[in-house]
Design brief:
467 residues, mainly alpha, 12 strands, elongated
Length: 467
């Protein structure tokens, strides 16, 4: 058996982090077992499905590095197949036509509630002859649910789960307009796509028992099911925007790297000893469903930030330059030409050590692209006292004659200058850093001056000392 998993989102909104984790687990499980990972867009809800949401799904999966092994399947293109299966069930007596009106169904639900029973369809047309219905009356197609015994699901995460069949109702598989319901379409698609493992959130557990009725009525092989516990907020409540970012797009915009988010999501509900940091190759090698816990996971944004910091430090410098430039490109006051990008590349090893995410990295890099005069943070402004500006004026005259302008000569000059002025090096370096970067944070001062170049350093110092 070739393992085939699928990620099957509905394009009705953003790619939620819970769905993203389900996609990751499906991908890793398939790759761990040398199988295939597929994508199905469940777009039968025409009113709520949008192309924009489809694009968000594609972009999010591509960003996370979760590439399907086959072309995506669009559920909306398969309606004839869904109808064909429903009609087969109808012809073989496994399903029937229901002519109940909306008013009759509402009365059924109200009566059931009044009697303390679940508000559901009571099987009124299950054993009636179609001739009793008004001529030309619209109808839905309902599957015949088993009334006796129980259904047992051996879930690969939840263990054995049992439901009494009396709890299952004759659900609709075709609506009056001939369109399939979600429960029916999903089963047809999973069967035809040869899906061997359905790995999804445990909010689908109830759906699974209803979908099993269709598998059994059709005599189809039943896939393995694995229902993943949901992701909650840090307070244990359902994850929402009030907790922070909750969609893949938001995490990307807030400066998280895809490898960091995937690494964190993997460890959110799955474990392998004390291993915390795992690359994709290691993830594929180690991942299996027996490591998935049964309890809901809680988002820990501080831990995610820690993981992101690790992967940021491992990231390729040229890649980070490209991302920073992209994030700064909407600021017309910055000079983002190649020479300035080269300066950033030179400083990137030091900059990425001091940043937690790409947004912070871009903010910390902005001074490289800023034209004189700079704007200053409050902390930098406080350092640039009249006394310090006089000191920087003296230093500028010495830097102007420094030849060659190298890291070593800069370092030597700063130490020598501090000694002559009877100052600690920090008392020279911090005002200098404030003057040339506009902030109190940067890579080493010698690296910073070297990257900016003598001409730019003197121009920035002049803007401060001559003011």
């Amino acid at each position: 058996m070739t393992v085939r998993t699928r990620f099957a989102p509905s394009p009705t909104g953003l790619l939620h982090i819970g769905n993203a984790r389900a996609a990751l687990f499906n991908y890793l499980y398939a790759k761990h077992h040398n199988g295939q990972f597929l994508l199905r867009i469940e777009d039968t809800d025409k009113e709520r499905s949008t192309q924009q949401a489809v694009d968000v799904i594609f972009d999010g999966l591509a960003w996370m590095g979760l590439t399907p092994d086959e072309e995506p399947v669009y559920q909306s293109t398969r309606i004839k197949r869904h109808q064909e299966v429903a009609l087969h069930l109808l012809e073989t007596g496994k399903a029937y036509k229901c002519f109940c009106t909306q008013e009759e169904l509402a009365d059924m639900r109200a009566k059931a509630q009044a009697e303390g029973k679940p508000p559901r369809y009571n099987g009124y047309w299950r054993d009636r002859d179609e001739s009793e219905a008004p001529e030309g009356a619209p109808y839905t197609v309902r599957i015949k649910a088993p009334h006796e015994g129980k259904t047992i699901l051996n879930d690969l995460v939840q263990g054995e789960v049992t439901v009494a069949n009396i709890e299952l109702d004759d659900m609709i598989i075709l609506r009056a307009d001939g369109t399939p319901t979600y429960q029916h379409a999903v089963v047809c698609d999973d069967h035809d796509m040869n899906i061997t493992h359905v790995i999804r959130g445990d909010d689908h557990l109830t759906n699974t028992f209803r979908q099993l009725m269709i598998y059994r009525a059709m005599g189809w092989d039943i896939p393995n099911f694995a229902h993943l516990p949901l992701i909650h907020g840090p307070d244990g409540a359902k994850l929402s925007k009030r907790h922070g970012a909750s969609s893949v797009v938001e995490f990307r915009d807030e400066g998280y790297l895809p490898e960091a988010l995937c690494n964190y999501l993997l460890r959110l509900g799955w474990g392998h000893g004390d291993d915390e940091i795992l690359n994709r190759e290691e993830q594929i090698k180690l991942f299996d469903l027996d490591g998935v816990g049964r309890s809901p996971s809680r988002m820990d944004y501080a831990k995610l930030m820690h993981v992101n910091g690790y992967w940021l430090r491992q990231a390729d410098d040229q890649r980070l330059v490209k991302d920073v430039v992209s994030r700064l490109s909407n600021n017309p006051d910055l000079v983002l030409d190649q020479s300035h990008q080269d300066r950033l590349l030179t400083l990137m090893p030091g900059l990425k050590e001091r940043a937690k995410n790409l947004v912070e990295l871009a903010e910390n890099s902005q001074f490289i692209f800023t034209q004189t005069p700079l704007s200053f943070t409050d902390k930098a402004q406080k350092i640039l006292t009249e006394e310090n500006c006089d000191m920087l004026s003296k230093l500028a005259s010495q830097l102007a004659t420094l030849t060659p302008f190298t890291k070593e000569t800069i370092n030597h000059l700063l130490h020598e200058f501090a000694e002559k002025e009877s100052l600690k090096l920090g008392k020279v370096a911090q005002p200098l850093r404030a003057a040339v970067t506009g902030s109190t944070m940067s890579p080493g001062i010698d690296d910073t001056l070297l990257a900016l170049g003598k001409e730019e350093v003197l121009a920035r110092l002049g803007a401060v000392t001559n003011g």
